[in-house]
Amino acid sequence: MQQKVIFVCLGNICRSPLAKALFEKHLHEKGVSAEFLADSAGTSGNHAGEKADSRTLLNARQNGLIFSHTAKKFTLEHLQTYDMVVVMDRSNERNVKSLSDNIQLHNKVHLMRNWDTEGPGEDVPDPWYGGSEGFEEVFQILNRSTSALLRELLIR
Ligand code: 4NP
Question: For ligand 1, is residue 142 a contact (CB within 6 Å)?
């Protein structure tokens, strides 16, 4: 059975689409793509239907990663269907958990940086209002966090 993982941020145009693309890159490199289903969504539907933010795409391309994406809103159905819901920050965590009061569903929700040895348990900063260095910082955080997440899922 595939392990189903969904990455969640606010707008689903900066952090979570990149997290999904990096996770899929690690899957591909380890030859385990068939064992996983990855997706991403945003707790706000404000950017639904849009492509990823141009600054995210530019930074990813500068790091050798090209991906396509269409933003969508995270729903209760995602929380029910996916095995693991990986949120970028505490605000995303609150918004996701507010969709249900079921503890078993809440237990699927994890902070992305729980897997970041260089800032365990911190929020992935929202790069939206900052400069290009914020997008590079997010890329580095997500690259190492998604890699560590996959290593853990592969030994479960
Ligand atoms: P994301 O970034 O949650 O990483 O996709 C943001 C995108 C849009 C906005 C905020 C953060 N916004 O305010 O529209």
Answer: no
Whether the CB of 67 sits within 6 Å of ligand 1: no
15 is known as an active-site residue: yes
CA distance 109 to 132: 29
CA of residue 13 to ligand 1 center, whole Å: 6
CA–CA–CA angle 20, 78, 52 (5° rounding): 35
Helices (H), the chain: 15-30, 54-62, 76-81, 90-97, 103-106, 132-155
Q: Over its length of 156 residues, how does the chain's per-residue pLDDT go in tens digits?
A: 999 999 999 999 999 999 999 999 999 999 999 999 999 999 999 999 999 999 999 999 999 999 999 999 999 999 999 999 999 999 999 999 999 999 999 999 999 999 999 999 999 999 999 999 999 999 999 999 999 999 999 998
pTM of the full predicted structure?
A: 0.98
Domains and CATH numbers, the chain: 3-155 (3.40.50.2300)
